[in-house]
Amino acid sequence: EAGVAQSPRYKIIEKRQSVAFWCNPISGHATLYWYQQILGQGPKLLIQFQNNGVVDDSQLPKDRFSAERLKGVDSTLKIQPAKLEDSAVYLCASSLQGSYGYTFGSGTRLTVV
Amino acid sequence: AQSVTQLGSHVSVSEGALVLLRCNYSSSVPPYLFWYVQYPNQGLQLLLKYTSAATLVKGINGFEAEFKKSETSFHLTKPSAHMSDAAEYFCAVRQGGSEKLVFGKGTKLTVNP
Fold first, then answer.
1. Which positions in chain A touch B90 (Cβ < 8 Å)?
2. Is the per-residue pLDDT at A1 higher than 70?
3. Which of A38, A33, A103 lies closest to A75, judged by CA?
4. Is residue A71 within 8 Å of A88, Cβ to Cβ?
């Protein structure tokens, strides 16, 4: 089966600019997650979707981050405006409802200068 | 809330030597525990998972982990290290009542020839 697709792989932007990341989960996976992985740390959940509804966005900095999952398939994560501390790898993952463990995409490495 | 602690941010072994990566968990309920591996510039790949069945869990690439409730541990081992095992390894616990994974800070494994 095809894996979780993410684009772009790399992005460099200046602070205060905006950026968007895209994720296409594995077909049939109802649950989609966005994680932020800062260098030297483990991934941290930003937002979890079940189909097109938000299950958990408690750690999403809502003043600058937004995410949507229209039609319950693809998802977009946006940062506006970006800060230097947003430099990280943004990982998308998906899973079947009730299963154990996720399948991760390769991630998008964001550098804010 | 559940959490995991990985002891040692860097571990170095010789090729052919035993690999031991340590993970201790904190959970008020029986946990679901996971080990993931991350190769450079890639996403996370599931190595193995404990879901309250057998306490000794075998995973891919010759890795295994043993769940020890008395020690609140879930250490990852491999009898003989290979150069291709060099990567970063993350222990994670699933939050009770949700599908959210909480990750440790990771252990970077170096394998010396």
1. 42-43
2. no
3. A33
4. no
Query: For the segment B51-61, what is each residue's pLDDT rounded down to a tens digit?
Result: 877 889 999 99
Give A100's pLDDT tier (boundaries 50, 70, 90).
confident
pLDDT in tens, B81-91: 999 999 999 99
Higher pLDDT, A2 or B77: B77
CB contact under 8 A, A95 and B103: no
Whole-number Å distance between alpha carbons of B8 and B53: 28
By CA distance, what is A106's nearest residue in B? B43
CB contact under 8 A, B49 and A101: yes
Best CA proximity match to B104, nearest among B19, B12, B33, B29: B33
CB atoms within 10 A of CB A96: 15
Higher pLDDT, B96 or A85: A85
Structure tokens at B63: 């890795």
Residue B25 touches partner A, C-beta closer than 8 Å: no
| Nearest partner of B90 among B18, B27, B29, B42, judged by Cα | B42
The helix/strand count (H/E) of chain B reads as: 0, 11
Establish if B101 touches chain A: CB-CB under 8 angstroms. Answer: yes
Nearest-angstrom CA–CA distance, A75 and A78: 10
pLDDT class of A102 with cuts at 50, 70, 90: confident
Q: Which residues of chain A have a Cβ shorter than 8 Å from any chain B Cβ?
A: 4, 31, 33, 40-45, 48, 55-56, 91, 93, 95, 97, 100-107, 109
